[in-house]
Write a structure and sequence with these properties.
- 2 copies of one chain form a homodimer.
- Chain A is built from 11 helices and 15 strands.
- In chain A, helix 2 (51-64) runs antiparallel to helix 8 (280-289) and helix 3 (80-91) packs parallel to helix 8 (280-289).
- In chain A, a hairpin with a 2-residue loop joins strand 9 and strand 10 (261-262).
- By secondary structure, chain A is α/β, with parallel strands linked by helices.
């Protein structure tokens, strides 16, 4: 063929991170068959779905097998039962949104990737280091990207660059993946004020909101003025163990307009044209998460993981290793000891403690010299990893 | 805000079709509360998921509730168990494809909409009338579209326009939605030869393939040379009643290249960046469809609907109404009697027989004067509708 392809794809960097990790682990294992390797690298959950979710999905499966209760095409934006449930849930954070502002989807990654469909050409501001989808989806659509440097000096929480006065699209992730850093109300108010002043849009990724402890914002909509300049994307993946079950939501406020055009209507049209809704069975599972019992069960999942985070954090403190995260986030972002590079520390940990983590460099150049550990492992392995770190560091 | 939006969205026509139908039905019902309305309009299935699918999903739900069998993130392209199963299924059509050429997704609509992400600016050829997603997703990305006129003269099966000699993107749907027309091997060979000659890409929508009776191609890959110029998109929605359960697949052959770039790798990158896979539970349900028992059960669903199609077809033949489809497709596409317009015939049927169909005009200007009836209703209602048509026409 000689059709024209989207040439922006050829500007993407090959993503070697997880394949390179897998390769190094494989090579090490082959030479050290007697050694037990503990993985604290990937951002995937390990605890099963909770009982109310399982019960609810069994019921929904039965409904789908019966002519009288069978459901065909779901509304593209989600059934009202789940849109309204999500809206109600936000009340616990003091946020008032309508069900029709909630778009239910198969994943935060999908929505973060697809949101570019409704946007034109704008300068894009993306933290570095950060979750790679923000950058890659904007490279794919040929956008110009400027990085917001997240550094040890700003506690990995970059603030507005007042020298940029044009309208931009700003990606923020709090609690942050990979750094675990969390913005305060005051900091997010500065971001929202900056967005309003410059006419910019903030795309706020709050996938780790339920890991927050203490008085920190769970939603950008806790901030005055945010409905005029923000879209929020959240998910059940980490909150309720839905990484392999797939349910997320995007909030596009009715008040969100650019030059008189409502973004809610544009996203609705995008989803109605290119998406056919989340499986009914999954929507019923998701609904159950937000029941009283479901929320208790999800909280227990988060607490289990956060106890792992506490155990890892303790040994790092004990050894004087600088880190952020681990309090209101399942991720611990540490400075590699002895000024080792990200991959050097990766090899050091693998060879000397048989622990696999994620080199910070994989999340952007700003991550070089840092390293991500996750608390999503099981308790037994985490405890063993902690003991190994205690001996090694 | 004053960010730049994707202004192509403002060129989209508002889709009033199904809301206008709903409004007219509502108005009629309000005035005629004693009349029973029979809906033969929407393209949604009514029979429940089959027993093997239900059993398989219950098992998968249980696995997700147990720590030892729990599954987190699925591979973005689908588990090998389903990719390989789909590839094996194609052998029944004499087509040899590899599992890695199969990308499993949440819907044909998603893939048909998202495929534009990997394509550059090309002239787009789209049949008229046709399923609206082809047109809308290309308008959204600012492409120039030329219609392939499907008319009564070509039996609603447009063939290549030899005056177009440049490389284009060609959308074909066979069996066709809404016309039910099906291309022969000979006709598709002409299309494939034309695509190869002009360096074009064919995007082949085969969502209704299992409705085919007799010696007609189920897959574009039955045609010699197709792997060099075709992508095929198919789904379990109509084949196994998955409209509310969501599982589809797209085949991007390894041999498919444009100017040295492999489209399989580009689609892989698109999906890995903007999609996180189909729920494990749903993938297990989908796998069950392709088991020996599952295929028998799916066949019974299709046969049930096709008996409805036969009943509707018979009364149309009896009354001398011109139509196509209804033999290898669940859709019957009829010429409105007495040269009525699509909406005039809609009102006529609603007012005089309380039957709701879909005005052909809703699928493009070429559909004006035509009307779509579907066989997805239940038997009892379909029989009653047939009797009403027998009296009315």
């Amino acid at each position: 063929m000689n059709i024209n392809l989207n040439e922006n794809f050829f500007k993407l960097k090959e993503s070697y991170l997880f394949s390179e990790i897998a390769k190094r682990v494989r090579d090490y294992s082959a030479k050290n068959t007697d050694k037990k390797i503990i993985k604290l690298g990937i951002g995937d959950v390990t605890l099963p779905l909770t009982p109310v979710v399982i019960t609810s999905m069994h019921k929904a499966v039965d409904e789908m097998g019966n002519k009288d209760s069978f459901r065909g095409y779901a509304p593209e934006y989600g059934y009202n039962f789940i849109r309204d449930t999500v809206a109600s849930f936000y009340k616990t954070w003091g946020v008032s949104i309508e069900g029709e502002e909630v778009f239910v989807s198969d994943g935060a990654k999908s929505d973060l990737g697809n949101i570019v469909d409704i946007l034109g050409d704008n300068l894009i501001l993306i933290p570095d280091p950060v979750y790679p989808v923000y950058l890659d989806s904007n490279i794919m659509s040929g956008r110009k990207v400027k990085f917001l440097n997240a550094t040890i000096e700003n506690n990995f929480l970059p603030m507005p660059d007042e020298t940029i006065t044009e309208s931009t699209i700003i990606y923020l992730c709090s609690p942050n993946n990979p750094t675990g850093a969390v913005y305060s109300h005051k900091q997010l108010k500065i971001w929202v004020d900056y967005a309003i002043k410059t006419g910019s849009l903030i795309i706020f990724d709050s996938a780790y909101a339920t890991f927050i402890k203490g008085d920190l914002p769970h939603s950008i909509f806790e901030i005055d003025g945010a409905k005029k300049c923000c879209i929020e994307i959240n998910s059940l993946s980490k909150m309720a163990g839905f990484t392999g079950t797939r349910c997320a939501w995007t909030i596009v406020p009715n008040a969100l307009e650019s030059n008189g055009h409502k973004l809610n209507k544009m996203w609705a049209r995008r989803q109605a044209t290119k998406f056919n809704g989340v499986p009914y069975i999954i929507q019923r599972g998701a609904e159950a998460v937000f029941s009283e019992k479901g929320l208790q069960e999800s909280k227990a999942l988060v607490e289990y993981y956060m106890e792992n985070a506490r155990l890892i954090s303790e040994v790092l403190k004990e050894k004087g290793v600088w880190f952020t995260g681990g309090i209101s986030s399942p991720y611990i972002w540490l400075k590699c000891p002895n000024n080792l590079g990200s991959w050097e520390f990766f090899d050091y940990l693998l060879n000397n403690a048989q622990i696999v983590g994620t080199p910070g460099q994989g999340f952007g150049n700003g991550g070089e010299g840092y390293f991500r550990l996750t608390s999503f492992g099981d308790r037994e392995n985490t405890l063993e990893a902690v003991e190994r770190l205690r001996k090694l560091l």
